[in-house]
């Protein structure tokens, strides 16, 4: 956010620029957090086609804060294709970096292990769609 030359490529910038008029009518005025507002828990967040890079870290931090990643039962699934395999280092970096914001500090240090032990972090390979 503090580097204007990079900001234009962030998720935040793309969401700001997304014209509401292109959304289907049933999506207008909706939020990815509607389930929580209705008293439900967000069960899973799936990632696909994302670099998990530094430029979008604040986006992920906001998502994880909103669902109380440490204290909830929300699962994270990182999806990849056979052509573009998983970036384990980026996933570990994302979890460790987010862990630095978790209070108490000890909880943040064990976030990745907690998610793995509770089977709340998964890496899934998507099969290519075969069109006949």
Descriptive overview:
The protein has about 130 residues and is an alpha/beta fold. It is built from 7 helices and 3 strands. Strands 1-2-3 form a 3-stranded parallel β-sheet.
Estimate the mean pLDDT confidence. 81
Shape: globular
Rg, nearest Å: 16 Å
Low-confidence stretches: none
The helix/strand series, from N terminus to C terminus, equals HHHEHEHHHE
Profile the largest sheet. 3 strands, parallel
Query: What percent of residues are in strands?
Result: 5-15%
The side-by-side strand order for the widest beta sheet comes to: 1-2-3
Short characterization:
The chain is of the alpha/beta class and 132 residues long. It is 37% helix and 14% strand.
Can you lay out the helices and strands and say which pair or pack?
Layout: H1 4-7, H2 11-17, H3 34-37, E1 44-48, H4 57-66, E2 75-81, H5 88-99, H6 105-109, H7 111-117, E3 121-126
Parallel strand pairs: 1-2, 2-3
What are the salient characteristics of this protein?
3 strands; single chain; globular; 3-stranded parallel sheet; 132 residues; 7 helices; 37% helix; alpha/beta
């Amino acid at each position: 956010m503090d580097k204007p030359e990079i900001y234009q490529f962030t998720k935040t910038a793309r969401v700001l620029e997304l014209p509401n008029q292109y959304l289907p009518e049933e999506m207008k005025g909706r939020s990815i957090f509607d389930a929580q507002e209705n008293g439900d828990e967000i069960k899973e967040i799936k990632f696909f086609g994302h670099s998990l890079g530094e430029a979008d870290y604040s986006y992920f931090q906001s998502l994880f804060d909103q669902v109380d990643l440490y204290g909830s039962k929300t699962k994270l699934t990182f999806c990849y294709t056979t052509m573009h395999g998983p970036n384990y280092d980026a996933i570990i970096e994302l979890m460790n970096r987010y862990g630095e914001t978790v209070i108490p500090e000890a909880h943040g240090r064990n976030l990745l292990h907690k998610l793995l032990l509770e089977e709340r972090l998964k890496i899934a390979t998507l099969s290519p769609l075969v069109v006949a």
